[in-house]
Design a protein that fits this description.
With about 90 residues, the protein is an all-alpha fold. It is built from 2 helices and no strands. The longest helix is centred in the C-terminal third of the chain and has 52 residues, at about 40-90. The model has no long low-confidence stretch (mean pLDDT about 80).
Length: about 90
């Protein structure tokens, strides 16, 4: 029984040690990504911009009828106001 508990303890110690090493490695990598710029910044920026463009495209596909209706209403209101202002200035 003592042999089994020793093996279990060694296994847990080894797993904890490997987890600690992996955590340290990932921490160093995260710091290097933030501090070092080897062209990665441009790549990350492109990914972020692409994600934003895709979100806007999906939003437009989902809400296109509402967006087009709002745009038509806004432009009609704008042109009606400019027409009434033009007729007011020419009549007086």
């Amino acid at each position: 029984m003592n042999n089994i508990s020793t093996k279990a303890a060694l296994f847990l110690f080894d797993a904890k040690s490997k987890f600690g090493k992996a955590k340290d490695y990932l921490g160093r990598k995260a710091k290097s990504i933030v501090k070092e710029e080897n062209g990665d910044t441009n790549f990350i920026s492109i990914i972020i911009i692409l994600a934003i463009v895709l979100l806007v495209a999906v939003a437009f596909m989902i809400f296109k009828d509402q967006i087009i209706g709002w745009f038509n209403g806004t432009t009609q209101t704008f042109f009606n106001q400019t027409d009434s202002a033009a007729s007011y200035t020419t009549s007086h």
